[in-house]
Amino acid sequence: MPRTSNQNAGLTLIELVITLAVFAVTVTVVAPAMQSLQHGNRLRTEATRLLDALNLARSEAVMRNNPVVLCPRPAPGEDDASCDGLFANGWLVFSDSARNGRFDAGSDELIRVFEPLPQGYTLTDLAGGSSTRGPISYLPDGTSRRNISLLVCPPQELPLQPWSVVLNNVGRARMGRGEGRCPTVLP
User: Which residues 6+ apart lie within 8 Å of 28 measured at CB?
Assistant: First the structure.
């Protein structure tokens, strides 16, 4: 009669402790890198969202044969027609029939409303000295007649390079990196 062996197929306590220790060290090392990667992706997403808004405004101006404005939204609770807010509060794209750079509910058509930047993210000019204000207008020929460089900056505690959105006189917008410095404190 053959002898059978009585072997257990489970883990010993030592093997389990070693496996958990390796897992804990791996998570400790990888977690900060994953957080940095997540914020880096978020930063690029916000810059892309601003670029998309500029491209939408330009194409709508040409398609409608009417000026179209990208306008910073005011702080929550304030009048949306003022265009006196900050781009960090979000932005509006609207047709500007009156050509006054303000949203007039009676004559202008609201094309799209963009949400604010996430908490801690900021939008500033290329010099990093001030927060960005004022509408960006596109004429029916697709030109903006305005040079502007905007920086989308990460929360201050993150050592990430900002993304820039650059608009030239002809109305072409592009994204880039390493073209400015984010301020340490916005006014």
Answer: none
